Amino acid sequence: MADIRPFRALRYNTATETLSAVICPPYDVISPQREASLLAHDLHNFIRIEYAKTLPGDDESCNRYTRALAHLQEWLRDEVLKQDEKPAYYLHEHTYSYGGEKVVRRGLFARVRLEEWDKMVVRPHERTMAGPKKDRIKLIGTLEADTSPVFGLYQDDGGSVGSVLNQVSQWPEAIEFSGEPGEYHRLWVITDLEAVAAIQRAFIDKPVYIADGHHRYESSLAYRNERLALDPKLSADAAVNFVMMSLTDMADPGLLILPTHRLIKGLPKNLLYILPERLAEYFNVESLDSIGESWNKVKDLMKESSSRFFIYGLNGKEFLSLTVKDQTKVERFMPSGHTATYRGMDVSLVDHVVLEDILGMNPMDEERIAYDHDLDSTVARVNSGEFQFAFILKPVKPETIKDISDAKDRMPRKSTYFYPKLPSGIVVYRLRD
């Protein structure tokens, strides 16, 4: 189904550049402190292209996008970046640590033909916001390049893709470099004609599911449509008809999806007082006692597949476990047009039943709601008094993403967090033929 092809990537010249010094996180997770650190670290750090600084006095002719273009042109001229001579797939092994264990996630950099959502060739699972797309469209149009990959998933039930990648991973020509603290990367450039053909054949009947990077995908699609409107005779194989993606098997043992816990502040005392009683109208509420006694039990319950979420800090250092009493009773709070999978998700119950109905809040009220992907950190932020309490959610499983996407549904905002984020700067896709 998906048209997945090799491409001639722009890559750092490893004869002159140290990759560990020049790659950077994707634009949407770079904090101001990390930005300053990356800018000071190396004159050729990719942040200067991926997320160039906004400066006072910027205008249409001089701004963050034109500065990114100037760096790109300079680095190409000085051969800091070079374009590969042959089209290639790029096998990427991303090693990281989580929970005290070393984990490896495998991805394949490729260019994927852009398709409108209704064709169900590339399938989303969440909605996007307009602001981030405007930024990415401007960057793509100015640079004529995809600077960071969309993270996609596929099912490899027959193992056809995996068998080829297993062979490639035995090749000795890997490029090895470190990344963020505790992270390590290996990259293989696949130009062998038999391997390239085998990978293309293996993807013929597979849709692609977007894991992370919905904004980047929709920005690329919008830019393609702009170009097509200007030139209706644009070749179907023109570079702008494709987007750079990193593709990972849904069954990859290194695929880690973290939950997005909700931390709450700014609620009046009277609302906090009646909250336990209101919760009991819709949920079975079980106290798991103090944090020391219940910590392991919470972590065990978070592994189960049934609908269950937790609240921490409503009654001191106590965890509450909540399950639905009567599904028909909570159904009336769910937005119309959503699937049973959506209606049964923990995040849907929290957003629509508790936040919207019981607390009268907008689930996107970021003045009173913060998000954290780490359980220890979430608990600590409540204990410190920064937040009044927190909703602790279970991680979403890959099969839930597939079910939602296959049904043309979308999850609530901030339902998934894929860890770790793919770095930017390993490969760049140029939208020039």
UniProtKB/TrEMBL annotation:
What Pfam families does this protein's entry cite?
Answer: DUF1015
- Record's protein name: DUF1015 domain-containing protein
Q: Which organism does this sequence originate in?
A: Dehalogenimonas etheniformans
Its ancestry begins with: Bacteria, Bacillati, Chloroflexota, Dehalococcoidia, Dehalococcoidales
